[in-house]
């Protein structure tokens, strides 16, 4: 069964990127299944290689982005997600999913707060891959582009030094090439010390085909977009892990 | 948990013994907005029933016959005087708009799948799928509370799509606004309580943002018009497109089926929306009608969306419609109009206690849909409601009796003959249209410094970038926005619309909008023709097949009882119908909004008759998607397709010289344009077209500059261009024109393709500089300077 | 059971004092500056500590925010305070979300029966004259959906 790789997408009321994220996962060779949180149970994570928290506005993101969803996970599933991770599972949180993971404590401490401009920002950004050891980012070059779309994407820590420390320790997996929203240390994506959890504000699922790029002349990797390589990286990684 | 309901939930209203005057008084007392003739018709109906109506029945009739629901102005018999004579129009909708569509449908069998008879019109996308589009206005609520008004405006039109066929999937939204100018001085607002245009702008944009983004539906295209005519009556149009298997379009309620209410609860927060939107605004509106202000709950609607799409895919839905104006009464009325059936009001989940029968039945609380399903599917629907964390309640059933019976705690509170209910008396109106006294363009107004004029036009509110607004919207969620509202090599240059991929199809859809209120002030018929042309032309530029374009018409105007104002509406209807028929682009849906006038200290202010044309076009191949930004091809050739004219009326150039209203509007050469669009599409299929942009606000020179905003090089224009009449050639806004970029090696083929048509070589792309050079008019301007002016125009205000 | 009250105010640690021109529709010379906070007024029965615990768990982001209990002003030196929130009967989505979660997560120690959420602006004089509340109220508050109060600083204090 080494060929199979199972991804589970956890959907909350207000999650709205599950469709295109499942599409991207399948394109990269995953079996992808979306599970509404009302049907999720501790057992849901058995036989799963990758849990994905897709983008959207879980429970409307009222109070603050990801807050109520993370409380809901704790309430319904207890520490099931932590156990899944401790048992070797991989977790990917995109945009709202990243915000939820921050609240759940599956990533280094910090917070995603309102963008410095106090605006929602929907645009494409230049990104830097700053680590060599992420199973999600293997197949990506050191510089790539993805779209962002969020109102609360500014990554902060208790003090700016802590964010710099994340960079030094190889936890700041993806950084903006320029200042986009006031994030400390330009952090756009964070990985856990285990490397098996990645939180990402940009949307890789929106750039799996070259034609999804804003420039009609962009065609760097034979019809694929950078996001595709993220999903393929993790796909190959879990396949290799399963084969061992 | 059931909420207790008061004992007496309805009452009988004596009408049988009332005379006309007393009936009129009763209508006013109950705020029914029914005329004397209407009330007499009501009395006639109950005479034949042999009893007096209940308050529930009167409210249902008032709602059903309201302008908002019944479009009685568009159904009225109108005697229209115009310079060519007198026309008798038996319903603008029936005899003009629908008749145009019927003639086009006869010419193009199979293309239009449904028009005017469902929540939205559908056209054929491919063998399996159909696509639909609906646009609504939410003007009055947005004037009073911009955030909430726009929020519920978008929420409402999304529900229209969810209720189209057996539940279409919303795939993209558009928003179009008409506001007062953002730099309006506070003192210029001549009525208390009116919100400054900047407040309207910010509130409305955030309202659209917070609903659309949370729903996960990309807001992909739109427009903003700024004009002092809209200070008191801002216009807010929200539209949504959807996709559905064509087999799921026909829907029918049969006897024995169960009616289910899903989504939000019913409360007093949504009473009298339909009658409210059919009346004019005044200062008091901002205080009295606060009951009409609702805040949308997008997550509630998202849960409904998830449920509906899943239920439809599993074949559980027989019929679905949204609770829009009129709430349960219009939804149930529509669903039970043939079979008849019973509704039990005590079953409706309520937000608060103490609602009487008519309040529950008529409430327009947001985020509710009504479904008809087979009894065996009720369990599955309830299960889906649990999964998606929303509510699903059995409201009643269809019984085959032909009559709508509404019960509340066992008592019959409303029993109406559904078919007779829809027979509102036809209104008789008069309208008049006189052509204005045009003045000829005079010499002496011509400036010396065309560079200065270009900079001035580029920074005009009619031209500047909507970027601050566009970035607030998630325009890429769902991952299918292949041509984005801002694109080109730098991702920030303007496009003519948006193109969406459709999951499960190789075909794509283009969306575009057009409105020209400045034209409408003095020549509404020219406005109608030009709007249809611009919308079609934008879709053609994007890569849509000109033979597969469908349109929507949304009209807004002031007081229809004023013959001059109504005359301008009639003229604009004539204009759009002439153009739509010539282009073979049928109307598949439309809406109208009246009474957009406001009583100020200086007297009533009405908006000019404004028409928004929105369009949807099919692109047969992803390779046809064409942007408006020049591609990196040094030495490539720029062509202007379409005939030039010396008329400048309505243009930004004329406006800035105070002459907009006086100079004649350009012509729209329908047959000639249609042929150009046909050939353009042929050239596109042959792979000769690199980029294309429509010439619109600001004229040719602005279009050329915009095309150059995102490339590395510059534009070198022909010496002949602008050497004779620079104002007309460079700044004229005549319709029917497209700027096209083609490779040098395809120049011969292009010129042959457009032989004997208006096709003029206007310049070249050069890698030598980053300038826009038009030596004929002495223009030499940095593209970066122009881009900054264009990009930063709105920033200080939003 | 008597209903008790608890007021909580949440401020942003990273927020800078900014010109009110960001809030006004027509910029004014010498416009005052503002700080924004959010206030939650709970009506509850049961343990006060349990309500505080709930508030910390649900409302506070310890990295970016500070939570203050009680009525004392969070900032000093202001000219006046503008508090505004949804008027009764108008949907407050945040309130609904908080109350819904409270229902789901009930621990039996407290029952929150009412919640009112208001936005609070502390207005500070900047160079110009003593600021007036009129233009701020006109542009920020909409009587169609909001109720509001303006509280001037106690100048004798």
DSSP E strands of chain A, number: 11
Major beta sheet summary of chain A: 9 strands, mixed
- Give the proportion of residues in helices of chain B: 25-40%
**What spatial form of chain A do the alpha-carbon principal axes imply?**
globular
Shape of chain B: globular
Q: Would you list the SSEs of chain A in sequence order as H and E?
A: EHEEHHEHEEEEHEEEH
Quaternary class: heterotrimer
Strand fraction of chain A equals: 15-25%
Uncertain residue ranges of chain B:
1-5, 286-290
Q: Percentage of helical residues of chain A?
A: 25-40%
How does this model look, in words?
The complex is a heterotrimer of chains A (244), B (798) and C (157). Chain A has 244 residues and is α/β, with parallel strands linked by helices. Chain A is built from six helices and eleven strands. Chain A has helices spanning 18-27, 67-77, 80-86, 96-104, 160-168, 226-243; strands at residues 6-11, 31-36, 50-53, 90-94, 111-113, 121-129, 143-150, 154-156, 174-176, 187-191, 197-200. Chain A has a nine-stranded mixed sheet, with helices on both faces. Helix content of chain B is 33%, strand content 24%. In chain B, β6 (169-179), α9 (197-215) and β7 (219-226) form a beta-alpha-beta unit. In chain B, α1 crosses α2 (36-49), α9 (197-215) runs parallel beside α12 and α20 (524-542) packs parallel to α23 (670-685). The radius of gyration of chain B is 27 Å and the shape is globular. The model of chain C has no long low-confidence stretch (mean pLDDT 92). The chains are: A alpha/beta (244), B alpha+beta (798), C alpha+beta (157). The interface between B and C is medium-sized, with 21 and 14 residues.
Short description:
Chain A is α/β, with parallel strands linked by helices and 244 residues long.
Summarize the helices and strands and which ones pair or pack.
The complex is a heterotrimer of chains A (244), B (798) and C (157).
Chain A: E1 6-11, H1 18-27, E2 31-36, E3 50-53, H2 67-77, H3 80-86, E4 90-94, H4 96-104, E5 111-113, E6 121-129, E7 143-150, E8 154-156, H5 160-168, E9 174-176, E10 187-191, E11 197-200, H6 226-243
Parallel strand pairs in A: 1-2, 1-3, 3-4, 4-11
Antiparallel strand pairs in A: 5-8, 6-7, 6-9, 9-10, 10-11
Helix pairs in contact in A: 2-4
Chain B: H1 20-29, H2 36-49, H3 55-64, H4 67-70, H5 72-75, E1 77-82, E2 85-90, H6 92-107, E3 112-114, E4 121-124, E5 129-137, H7 139-144, H8 146-162, E6 169-179, H9 197-215, E7 219-226, E8 235-245, E9 258-263, H10 273-276, H11 285-288, H12 298-313, E10 319-322, H13 327-335, E11 341-344, H14 357-362, E12 368-373, H15 378-387, E13 392-398, E14 403-408, E15 411-417, H16 418-421, E16 428-432, H17 450-458, H18 467-470, E17 481-483, E18 486-487, E19 493-494, E20 498-501, E21 508-514, H19 517-522, H20 524-542, E22 549-556, H21 563-583, E23 587-593, E24 597-600, E25 603-606, E26 610-619, E27 637-641, H22 652-656, H23 670-685, E28 691-694, H24 700-708, E29 714-717, H25 726-731, E30 738-742, H26 747-753, E31 759-766, E32 771-774, E33 779-782, H27 783-792
Parallel strand pairs in B: 1-16, 6-7, 11-14, 22-23, 29-32
Antiparallel strand pairs in B: 1-2, 3-4, 4-5, 5-8, 6-8, 9-12, 9-13, 10-12, 11-13, 14-15, 17-20, 18-19, 20-21, 21-26, 22-26, 24-25, 27-30, 27-31, 28-30, 29-31, 32-33
Helix pairs in contact in B: 1-2, 6-21, 8-9, 9-12, 12-15, 20-21, 20-23
Chain C: E1 4-12, E2 18-19, E3 33-46, H1 48-59, E4 65-69, E5 80-86, H2 93-104, E6 110-124, H3 134-140, E7 146-152
Antiparallel strand pairs in C: 1-3, 1-4, 2-3, 3-6, 5-6, 5-7
